[in-house]
Structure formats: structure tokens, C-alpha cells
Amino acid sequence: MLQRVNMPSNTSPPVLSDVAGASIPTWGDGRRARIGLLGGSFNPGHLWHRAIARRALKVLGLDQVWLMVSPGNPLKTGQAMAGFEARMATARALADGRKIVATDIEARLGSRYTVDTVSLLQQRFPHVRFVWLMGADGLASLSRWKRWRVLVHDLPIAVFPRPGQNAPALKGAVGHALARWRVPTCRAAVLALLSPPAWAFLAGAQNSISATAIRKRGGFPVGVCSQAGQDRQNTGEQP
């Protein structure tokens, strides 16, 4: 049964600089907030990441979204991967430094697996209600993640649509395994306050931008701002 966790009244989270992820302290602090974690390789970061962050802030009632750039994705060892600082730069270009914050905290924690990162963050930020943000493609492949069953019991998860991935995600093995804990979209605003396992699929506009497609068309590494402009022209998104 899904249970709501009472959360003390909180003040707004402090303004964080997007100049360097170090503004989020590795050792943690006592902030009280609802924070979405959007982890990934950001190889490169692109406007789908920004769109998801903005939607999560609005629909889930989050105080912030952290764009967590992975130091190395264990599931993408065979792919060409740009250097960490180059990937961080693309994430920073998508952040505003207040509501959407690019961070290197996963690298500073020395973690490469999401389940370990989440555990460390929850220890260091005990008063934060974290929500994991992912695309439908991530849910479809979740069974390949280290200790994924532990992960879904550690924090709520919000899943966003991706072209061609929604049916495999919702009707696949993981979707069936987690079906009883699915929260209707109408309750998404309280997802951060629910005791896990709890997850929601937030149907809506889909964006076909992918890091793979950007790399194939020779769009990375290039100037981050020019790349963001190209993606904006393709999607019609306003800055």
C-alpha cells in the first residue's frame, strides 16, 4: 500500500551556482526540499534533459532538479564517451543555477552506480525527498541496472515518455513487476512524499532528441551554445 510521508514545512533551497557542481556539498547539509535527480552521461546534454527537468519541477512540485553527470556509465562502456568536463559543460548550458542545477557530485562521491549514489545522497541529505527522473527507455532497461529492485524501494521514480519506448517500458518485465506500485498521474504532485516503491508515468509531449543522434550528425563536441540552438530549432522550444 502506498503511504504518504509527512514532510516538515521547508524553506526554499539556497541558490546554487551552475558554474561548478561543487556548490552542492559532497558531505551534505540539512536542507529540506523535494529534489529530482536526473542522472545520465550527458554525452552530450540536450534539450530533452531541460524539458524533463522543467516538467518535473511543475508536475511533481519539486524545489529543484539536479542534472547529475555520471563519471562513467557501466552500461555504456562500448560507446565513444567525451571527457567528463566536456559533458559537464553541456549540462551547465541547460541549467539555470537555481531550479535546475548541473552537478558533478556523483564523481565526487566516487560512485558509478545509481543505487549507490542514491544511498549516499540520502545519508548526506537526510531531510531531502529525492525523486529519480528517467525516460521510458531507462525503465525498459532497468533490469540491467545494479540492484534495481533495491533502487525502486529507495526512492519514488517518475518516468517520462520517449518515442518508441513507452510500450516496451510499461508492458515489459519491469513494468509488470512494478505495476502494483504505479501511481496515477493525477497524484503525481505528491509522488515525492510517498513511501517507495512508488512510481508514475507522466504521459505528455514526446521529444525525439537523443544524444546518439546528436553525435551521429557530428554535433558533439562542438560549442555548447550552438548545439543548444540547433536542438531548439528542431523542437521549437524557446530558451
From TrEMBL:
Catalyzes the reversible adenylation of nicotinate mononucleotide (NaMN) to nicotinic acid adenine dinucleotide (NaAD). One of its GO terms (molecular function) is nicotinate-nucleotide adenylyltransferase activity. Residues 37-217 form the Cytidyltransferase-like domain. The keyword Transmembrane helix does not apply. Pathway: Cofactor biosynthesis; NAD(+) biosynthesis; deamido-NAD(+) from nicotinate D-ribonucleotide: step 1/1. Gene3D superfamilies: HUPs. It is an enzyme of class 2 (transferase). It comes from Acetobacter peroxydans. Belongs to the NadD family. One of its GO terms (biological process) is NAD+ biosynthetic process. The keyword Transmembrane helix does not apply. Keywords: ATP-binding, NAD, Nucleotide-binding, Nucleotidyltransferase, Pyridine nucleotide biosynthesis, Transferase. This is Probable nicotinate-nucleotide adenylyltransferase. Pfam families: CTP_transf_like (PF01467). The lineage of its organism: Bacteria, Pseudomonadati, Pseudomonadota, Alphaproteobacteria, Acetobacterales. InterPro entries: Cyt_trans-like, NadD/NMNAT, Rossmann-like_a/b/a_fold. PANTHER family: NICOTINATE-NUCLEOTIDE ADENYLYLTRANSFERASE-RELATED, PHOSPHOPANTETHEINE ADENYLYLTRANSFERASE.
